[in-house]
Amino acid sequence: MRFVLKRIVAFAVALFVQSIVIFACLRILPGDLAMVIGGTTSTPDQVARIRGQLGLNDPYPLQYLRWLGGVLHGDLGTSQLTGVSVASEIGDRLQITLPLALLSLAVALAIGLPLGVHAVTSRSARVRRTLQVAAIVAGAIPALWGGLLLVMMFGRGVGLIGVLPAQGFPARGWHAFGRALASLALPALSVGVITGAEFMRYTRSALVDVANSDCIAQAMMCGMTRAQAIRRVGLRMVAPQIVSVAGLTFAGMMTGVIVVENLFALPGLATLVMTDLRNRDLLAVQSELLLLTTFFLVMGLVVDVLHHALDPRLKDASEGGGYA
User: Fold this and answer.
1) Could you tell me the sign of the dihedral formed by the alpha carbons of 254, 255, 260, 265, in that order?
2) Which tens digit of pLDDT belongs to each residue from 272-319?
């Protein structure tokens, strides 16, 4: 409990600091929301009146405290351009972004874990070298270029094998489950294949480190083959590291998801953030960025706690005062 409480306190402090950074950085950007709302024909008096109505003339500390107070009460604010609740807009967009990230992670794990194990346990040196080179090449492909290649191959109407939608999301959303899932297939593959290659490299590297350990030798002395020992014993030994990498990969995957959402014209969270940023809707943007920051920090907290729970060495060190 002491370990968890320390991590929660660190999480709260980091989130508070990040909220200040987000608020300050957005105020440095050029542009004026009042001029965006007033239009190009608005007079200086009209712009000044709009600024007063929106509270943009208040001191920055007061604006920050007003926003932070609303966030602490569960109110992310209202878009100053559309008048729609920021929380409801984020909720609608997350119905696309979150499933896309989860599908991408599933693809990455389905590719990276078995191929990473096979790259260590295969008896053929040629197979091991081929998988190693393939992982390096696939991991170096940018998500945007990988997405374009998949569209050219499988995109409906434009690809050589046009079987999957290349753009857009069904108007009925997840009520049209089959079409919605098909719309996320190519974007998920775009991110998942590249991330899976990185995951394969890490799995291979972690297993190579334990392949010659005493635990594997003892398992082989009990009658297991080397491949069986690595799969049954080696995977359990590196499970804490794999869980950590999977969690951090899921958080970092949001960067690739943002790219492919724009490429495949998906109305997800990335599109919302870019639109609000372009329109200088600062209250909406700062709440959206704070939500993304919270997601990254929560994933880091969960990974840290899981790693600590799965690795008894860390628990023993913590109880003995040797782990900070």
Assistant:
1) positive
2) 888 887 777 777 888 888 888 888 888 888 888 877 777 665 555 455
Cβ-based neighbour number of residue 171 at 10 Å: 8
Look up residue 73 and give its DSSP letter: T
Query: Which of 140, 157, 150 is closest to 184 using CA atoms?
Result: 150
Domains annotated on the chain, with CATH: 16-72 (no CATH), 93-319 (1.10.3720.10)
d(CA 170, CA 63): 38
- Written as one letter, the residue type at 150 is L
Q: Which pair of tokens denotes residue 136?
A: 């390096």
Q: How far apart are CA 36 and CA 22, in angstroms?
A: 21
Q: If you write DSSP's letter for every residue of 76-113 in order, what string do you get?
A: --B-TTT--BHHHHHHHHHHHHHHHHHHHHHHHHHHHH
Say whether pTM exceeds 0.90.
Answer: no
Q: For residue 95, what are the CA distances in angstroms to 90, 164, 172, 181, 222?
A: 9, 20, 12, 12, 50
Helix H segments across the chain? 2-28, 33-38, 44-54, 60-72, 86-121, 125-139, 143-154, 177-211, 214-221, 226-229, 235-237, 239-263, 269-278, 282-310, 312-319
